[in-house]
Structure formats: structure tokens, C-alpha cells
Amino acid sequence: MKPDQPAFAPPSDADARRAKPAVICYPTDALAPPDHQAMQGRRASATHRATCVILPRDARCTTVPAGGFFRITCPDGAQVGDLNLWSATDLTEHFYSGKTRALHGTHLSTGDRLWSRFPNMRPMATITEDTLDWYGWDADGGSVHDVIGTRCDPYTGRLLSGSDYHYCCHSNLTRALADHTGMSLAEAESYVHDVLNVFMCTGFTNDTHQYFMKASPVRKGDYLEFFAEIDLIVGLSACPGGDCGDEHTSDKAACYPLVIDVFESTEPFTSPAPNAYDRSHGR
Ligand SMILES: [Zn+2]
Predict the structure, then answer these.
(1) 96, 197, 237, 264: which sits with the fewest CB atoms below 10 Å from its CB?
(2) Which residue numbers delimit the DUF1989 domain (predicted)?
(3) 241: CA distance to ligand 1 center in Å?
């Protein structure tokens, strides 16, 4: 724990130092905005290809072709999902939640892109519809669909409670990727990464700036829809926290299924090129 009082006295110009203007680290003005009109046109002619049901406290993977769409729906009780994305042709190219957060902010909604890790660092998916976009920011500073939590996992559970729980999102995604690819659990686990917390309501407390969660505002029928920028393997876990209004990493919370619907478009589409940096790193 941090001490209650600072160990060092503030300088005489402390207020002036604190009053410096905040500067956005990564302005996105130079990025071409998503072409919503073109995406709406593609979506109108896209055909439903598959439905993937994710059972409570479990995860599944499904594929989505570039130029298609996938919709994550809450079909029953309030339920949070942990989303992983991989390139279908190269599992080492996966979603980079940290850089996505640096570019688009702590919580995502319509128009935000989900970027892949270095060196490709390109859009993997773009959010095209969000039925929870009305939520905005609540009085606690919370909002929905965050990229600040990592995913619930048995290692942190063991660290903080001393017991093992096997149906955290990390383990669920590990089993799902192993089942989808035929890899061993150990190999699949190395590809599981930090998530987009679909439908989850989170923020940082005002006093201690700790990560908090509160009951998701998601209702039956709410959905988050994405345009697939590259050929994707989509992994989704129905978190053991349920609506994440109380606790996760246990069997205590009421949990419900989630659904992924995949829509395929026959219109031609060219995926974004990998990042153009030459990777010489100064040598
Ligand atoms: Zn979870």
C-alpha cells in the first residue's frame, strides 16, 4: 500500500507545475475516419453465415472473413464478455488493447478501431454499432466496453485469494483457442491477450484511482457490432462475473450466454496494409 502522506514536501511552485496544460498523447486527426456509409452499404447486402453460442463461464472461437461483420449480442440476462482477436493467418498478430486505449481512450464505441500489435499495427476491426452508446459517462466516471481491464485470470486469483479457479476468461479463452486450432493448452495460452471488455461497466475510482466495475447496464437484446478489417479468429468468453456487479473469479455470480453472429459480404474488399515502419530501429 502507498503511504497516506507524501514523504517529500512540495516545491514552492507546485501549483504552477500541476497547472500545465494536458496534451493528448496520440491525436488521431491524421487518421482517415471510418467510411460509415460504405460499411452500411456492405452490411445491407451481407448475409448471415453463422451463429456461435457462448455458454456461461466458457468461451468459443469463430472465424470472420475480411469485409464481413460480427455482432455480439446479450440474448438473456446481463452478461459481460471478454473479447480476443487474432489474424486468421498469423496468430502472432493479435489485438493490442493498450495501443487501442492510447489512441481511442479507455472505453470504445461506434467508429473506434481495434488495432493489432507491433509490427503490423493495423485496424483488425471497426465498431459499427453499439446499442449501449446512450450510457456515456456515469457519476462514478464509469462507462462501458473498456480496454483498461486485462481479463480475469487464475494467476491473479491465486495471488490474491490463495485458491485456484479454472473458469476465468483467460482460461476460457485458452481452452477455446486450443479447441479451435488443435494446439495444446500451453501453446494456446501464449496467444491469449488483453481484451476488449464487451458490455462491462468500469472506470477508475476518484480517490485511489483503482480499477472498478459495476453492474453492466446491458439489457436483453443489446449488441455491439464490428466490421472485420482482416480475416479474423474471434474469441469470446462469457465472464464468470456475470454482469460484474459483485465479484468474478468464482461461481457466485449469475451468468448467462452470449451470442456471436457472423455476416459475410461478397463485395470485394482490400484489408489495410501492415504498418509501413521499416523496422530498422536506428541501425
Ligand atoms: Zn472475466
Answers:
(1) 264
(2) 54-233
(3) 6
- Pairing of β 123-130 and β 223-228: antiparallel
Whole-Å CA distances, 70 to 51, 73, 83, 236, 265? 10, 10, 12, 12, 11
CA angle 26, 143, 171 (to 5 degrees): 90
CA distances (Å), origin 250, targets 167, 243, 255: 8, 13, 11
CB neighbours of residue 99 within 10 Å: 17
- The Cα 203–Cα 232 span in angstroms is 29
- List, for residues 14-27, the tens digit of each pLDDT value: 999 999 999 999 99
Question: What does the DSSP 8-state code read for residue 22?
Answer: P
Q: 239 alpha carbon to ligand 1 midpoint, in Å?
A: 4
pTM of the predicted protein model: 0.96
**Dist. CA 103–CA 218, nearest whole Å:** 25
CA of 27 to the centre of ligand 1 (A): 31
> Taking Cα atoms as reference points, which of 238, 262, 200 lies closest to residue 59?
238
Quick one: pLDDT at residue 3?
80
Q: How far is the CA of 145 from the centre of ligand 1 (A)?
A: 13
